[in-house]
Amino acid sequence: MTLLKATKLSKVFGGLRAVSNFSLEIQPGELVGLIGPNGAGKTTAFNLLTGVYEPTSGEIEFDGKSVVGLKPYQITQRGIARTFQNIRLFANLSVLDNVKIAYHFHVKYGLVESVLRMGRYHKEEEEIRQKAIQFLKIFQLEDKKDEIAKNLPYGEQRRLEIARALAAQPKLLLLDEPAAGMNPQETHQLMDMIRWIREKFDLTILLIEHDMSLVMGVCERIYVLDYGSIIAHGTPAEIKNNPRVIEAYLGEEVH
Ligand SMILES: Nc1ncnc2c1ncn2[C@@H]1O[C@H](COP(=O)(O)OP(=O)(O)OP(=O)(O)O)[C@@H](O)[C@H]1O
Questions:
Q1: Which ligand 1 atom sits closest to the C-alpha of 210?
Q2: Is residue 11, in this structure, part of any structural domain at all?
Q3: 196 with 16: CB under 8 angstroms?
Q4: Are residues 26 and 135 in the same domain?
Q5: DSSP SS3 for 202
Q6: What range(s) does the ABC transporter domain occupy (predicted)?
Q7: What is the model's pTM?
Q8: pLDDT, tens digit, 9 for 90 and up, residues 177-232
Q9: Is the same domain home to 33 and 66?
């Protein structure tokens, strides 16, 4: 069954059609890229898929059910987690607490339930702590668990953001420019990590990225946005040679 199906999505801001007739289908387990020149509407598309914006028109089905009109936290609970182009961590909390929060969020109890569960509270806290530490190990951040998130170098903050998104136990992970600000070596490690987490967590991944070597290297299929509309989709080889894509990038090299 298709995991994510967006049909003819549009988003209008004032007079500007930021996303227009955007359709996309992702099957479970796929690793798909969304590319396009600056201002093409990529982040707006992510914001529609994650409930930050409601579409002006169109439909989004996740796991067979409509998610249009749901709040971002409800969409996370349905199984879509994301990272942001401009990293959004709890800057003044520790690295460990940033990941623990995602667990608390996933295991959200009502007040009565919390009181009834009080006896088990400490045990659960410890379990959450252990699970969070496991995630930090995967992302080679265990040694930094007590550091304040904002003091981490940029590449590590990006890794922490991915760790936190994964702690929400999503089926679909949306990564908005995960390699932004990374050097070539960090980008290379990130590519390996993306492939690895997909296998390890049985994930489906959709990523926005400007770094063509990353997109072409890890994605099995790519959608190309230009002025809010999908102008091409296909395998990396098909996209590289597509004249409309080359024209949209106006001489920017697609290699
Ligand atoms: N909240 C908003 N209000 C008004 N216009 C917006 C809003 N969000 C995005 N836009 C506009 O919609 C268009 C698409 O922007 P978007 O950020 O989605 O593009 P993008 O492809 O992610 O760009 P970039 O690669 O530069 O991040 C742009 O013209 C942008 O100015």
A1: 25
A2: yes
A3: no
A4: no
A5: coil
A6: 4-252
A7: 0.89
A8: 999 888 888 888 889 999 999 999 999 999 999 888 889 999 999 999 999 999 99
A9: yes
Scanning the structure block, which residue is given the tokens 């339930």?
Answer: 113
Residue nearest atom 1 in ligand 1 by C-alpha distance: 13
CA of residue 113 to ligand 1 center, whole Å: 42
CA 47 to ligand 1 center in whole angstroms: 10
Q: Which domain holds residue 107?
A: 92-157
For the stretch 36-70, pLDDT in tens is: 999 999 999 999 999 999 999 999 999 999 999 99
Q: Assess contact for 93 and 86: CB atoms under 8 A.
A: no
Instruction: Answer whether 15's CB lies under 8 Å from 203's CB.
Output: no
Ligand 1 environment, Cβ below 6 A: 13, 16, 18, 36, 38-44, 85
- Ligand 1, atom 24: closest residue by C-alpha: 38
**43 C-alpha vs ligand 1 centroid, how far in Å?**
7
Residue ID of nearest Cα to ligand 1 atom 26: 38
